[in-house]
Amino acid sequence: MKPYFARMLAVAGALVAGFLVVVMHSAMADENPNAFNRLMRPASERNAPPEADGIHDPTADGTLMLQPPREAFSNLPKSRSGNYVDWNRAIDDMLIAPRSDIRNADMNAVVLDLNIVREVKGSMPDVVYPHKQHTQWLDCSNCHPAIFIPMKGANQISMASILMGEKCGVCHGKVAFPVSECRRCHSKAKPVDQNQSGS
Amino acid sequence: MRSKPMMLSAMATRVALLVTTLFFLAAASAATASGDPLAKRLAMVHTLLFESSAAKQIEGSDTEAALAKRREAISLYETAAAGGSMETRQAQLNQAVAMLYEAVGLVSDGAGGEQKARRDFENRQSSLQALLSAHERIMKEKGKSQLHTLLLAEIEEDSEMAEALLAEGQFVEARVHLDRAYEVTMLSVEHARTGETLTRELKFDTPKDEYAYELDRNDTHRMLVKMLLKEKLESQSTQNRIAGFMEAADSYRDMALQHADAGDFIEAIDALELSTNELVKAIRGAGVYIPG
Fold first, then answer.
1. In the predicted model, is pLDDT for residue B180 greater than 90?
2. How many domains are contained in chain A?
3. Which band of pLDDT confidence, cut at 50, 70 and 90, is reported for residue A57?
4. A57 and A136 inside one domain
5. Which of residues A34, A58, A87 is at a domain's end?
6. B95: Cβ–Cβ under 8 A, 6 or more apart, which residues?
7. How many beta-carbon pairs under 8 angstroms link A with B?
8. Is 70 exceeded by the pLDDT of residue B104?
9. Based on the domain organization, do A116 and A40 belong to the same domain?
């Protein structure tokens, strides 16, 4: 009986230890140090509540007082990426009215309705940069002159630099829609004859 | 000499003991890995007190009240770290955090605050200069209207006043004038440009410039292959499907580099265009549609 009991105990112990190894592995996988980018999360983890978003301290007093994003976003128009809210449409539909100045509720943002079209080679549609949608959220000084010099021909912008987090990539892919959404910027189709001759 | 069943029994017992030890070791490690809430909180508060930018700001200041407040916060943290009931320790940590925020508030009103005010002033001034240059170019392009002439005079007056006040060390007053100059400039640019569309034409001065553009376009598409196909390339069939396109892309690019080395940028551009087209085919072949 004794050897049989000891063998059974050994098998049971091995099973428990194996189970714990699996649990530990998944716990450590959850603590991926590179999981900082909220925009890159899988569907099941999108817009997690503050105590589970990996950004806020889950044990801090104020964390549970914050409104969970899913609840806050429920009535806002949807988009296909980021936190899945079309923030510009939300402003246009007057569903939100962000304050332009934290200290002065009466101050209105200076919205510049100016489009810059950048021609690109080949059949790829040209890029349209709309100041309007940007200045609804940002002040001129957020981008000029540190990221873009406000002068024709002064900015060498390439997709490679954007993908490396420079120029438009300072925001896009981090807090604004990612660059994989090609058509949102490359939105001005070329004339048909030019399209046919392009590469 | 012991019998075979007895030896087996002894071995099994040793294995059982080893496994039981492993069980407790694993359980202890799992508790740490899955995150004891108090341990996590202690670690977070430690970072805040010793490594955060707020802690460094206080350390680098000579505001005695702020330094004393931080020392008090550290002492509370040490008490919490030493032990006690969970509730008491949580309360001590919350108080330590609140104290550090109070401490950094005291610094901001002192030397740190002045440094920040100066830095903010300089940043705003640099934005104003950039906008003023743009404003001047717009006026040259469109001709000055009476309104813009008046606005420009107002901007100059406020800008000069801001400089003078800054020289006297009056940051707050200087910032008021600078902000006004900045806002008027923004409004003036907005008035002049609203509703317009400006086109940046794609023109190259030399074939070498166009080659540089094509090289960048090729690099971009290579980065897109990595970025867009990261998950898809885990499949062997996808790898096989795009391998031919990638080889062709590499081959055309090598040709382009050789042409460029020989100074034949026209041929180099053609080869790079072919290479980029192959990369587009690879991306589309893997099931991701990109324009171009």
1. yes
2. 2
3. confident
4. no
5. A87
6. B73, B76
7. 162
8. yes
9. no
Nearest to A159 among B33, B198, B220 (CB): B220
By CB atoms closer than 10 A (0-12, 13-18, 19+), residue B72 is: middle
Q: Which residue has the tokens 């955090």?
A: B97
Q: Kindly report the nearest CA distance between residue B262 and chain A, in angstroms.
A: 24
The residues with which A115 forms a beta bridge, in sequence order, are A130, B197
Q: In one letter, which amino acid is B93?
A: L
Interacting residues of B226 by C-beta distance below 8 A, sequence separation 6+: none
Strands A114-118 and A126-130: antiparallel
Judgement on whether residues A115 and A54 belong to the same structural domain of the protein = no
Q: Which residue of B has its CA nearest to A148?
A: B130
Look at residues A32, A63, A87 and tell me which one is the last residue of a structural domain: A87
pLDDT of residue B288: 84
Please give the residue range of the domain that contains residue A125.
96-197
B69 Rama class: left (phi>0) / alpha (psi -120 to 50) / beta: alpha
pLDDT 10s digits, B27-39:
434 444 445 778 8
pLDDT at B92: 92
Tell me the CA distances in angstroms from B118 to B103, B111, B115, B206, one per residue in order: 21, 11, 5, 45
Residue A75 to chain B, least CA–CA distance (Å): 31
CATH number, domain with residue A126: 3.90.10.10
